Amino acid sequence: MNAVRPLRRLLQMPPRGARQLTTTPPNPYRNRRRLKAEPESYTTPPPTPYTSGEISKLSKYYTNDQVASLLEGESAIDPAHFHNRRRQPDHDPMKLQYFDDLSTLDPILDSPWGPQIYTPGHPLQPLPRLDHLLTLSASSSTATASSATSDPPWMREVSLKTGFSVAEIRRLRTKILVSHSVVNQTRMGKIRKIYCLSVAGNGNGLVGIGEGKSVEHSEAQRMATYMAIRNMMPVPRYEDRTIFGNLDIKVGAVELKLFSRPPGFGLRTSQYIFEIAKCLGLSDLSAKVSRSRNPMNVCKATIQALRSQKLPETIARGRGKKLVDVRKVYYNGAV
Q: For residue 334, with 0-12 CB atoms within 10 Å meaning exposed, 13-18 middle and 19 or more buried, which class applies?
């Protein structure tokens, strides 16, 4: 043993299995070290020789040879070193003041780990991944190969990048929201192009917007639709019909406010927010746009507000609370 923890400490340990229970909360400042240390309060009485009973108790932890070597080692140390050493404080001010068992994971407070499994209606469900779209197997039928070659090239490219099949991409709801001409002044003169902003969604929690610019109007629409499908992201919905609480956001000079509404309220918004809500799958929503009503910024503000929702489960987990939706659990959404 060393001078910091002598062999006598084993004799002062409580019996194994015993606990010192008390209802008095610990005082973190009980044994706080003072600025000017007092040597008398940190000294211990000089040790006394071991008795035969104490040596027999030490035999429970060590063999006879180990006890003899430990006693020889302690006898080689001057007892004054034990007498003048500083006693270790009983309270650690940096110790975690937790009463819970930190070796187990709490289902609410602790973040889940490992592979996440979401239900089909969950807003964070992963996009469906079809392996046969990435590499066409040699065993595919002739009809499938002929239909794949007849699809537009941009649809096949979107299918490879997103994981959706061409049939699923055709079933997506798309809409051109903004379309106007723009002019770029260069040294060669004025170059006129067509600008388009499109929205795409599956009506079940996925929505995205995209922009496209080209000389031809059809090409600009295709580019905008292509980018909107690629930019689709999941958006949380409350009861698959409205948003989680009211949202307030500012993009540029546009100040947008979205309000969650009860069932049967409908969509009472502007035409741009209406189309975005339809592509997302919202049925009860109202909005108010103040100051600027630029169509492009209104669309961008709506998407940014929908993606910045704070879920009640996340807020409850951060506060260490347990959240129960009364309407869903007790009334099954009937009230």
A: exposed
Alpha-carbon distance values, 85 to 6, 36, 48, 88, 170 (Å): 12, 17, 16, 9, 81
Q: CA–CA separation, 191 vs 164, rounded Å?
A: 37
CATH hierarchy code of domain 235-335: 3.30.230.10
d(CA 276, CA 299): 8
Distance CA 92, CA 114 (A): 34
Looking up tokens 């189309």, which residue turns up? Answer: 275
C-alpha dihedral sign at 130, 131, 134, 139: negative
Distance CA 10, CA 17 (A): 15
Residue 217: phi and psi, rounded to 5, are -65, -40
> Could you state, in order of their start, the residue ranges of all structural domains in the chain?
1-8+37-90, 235-335
Task: Compute the distance between CA of residue 11 and CA of residue 51 in angstroms, rounded to an integer.
Answer: 12
How far is the C-alpha of 200 from the C-alpha of 169, rounded, in Å? 10
pTM over 0.90: no
Q: Are 169 and 155 in contact (CB under 8 A)?
A: yes
pLDDT tens-digit series, residues 13-53: 555 544 455 556 666 555 555 555 444 444 455 567 788 88
* All residues at 6 or more sequence positions from 201 whose CB lies less than 8 Å from its CB, including other chains: 172, 173, 207, 208, 232, 276, 278, 279, 280, 281
Taking the CA atoms of 269, 270, 275 and 276 in sequence, report the sign of the dihedral they define.
negative
For residue range 228-284, what is the model confidence (pLDDT) as tens digits? 999 999 999 988 899 999 999 999 999 999 999 999 999 999 999 999 999 999 999
Q: E strand or H helix at 93, and its extent?
A: none
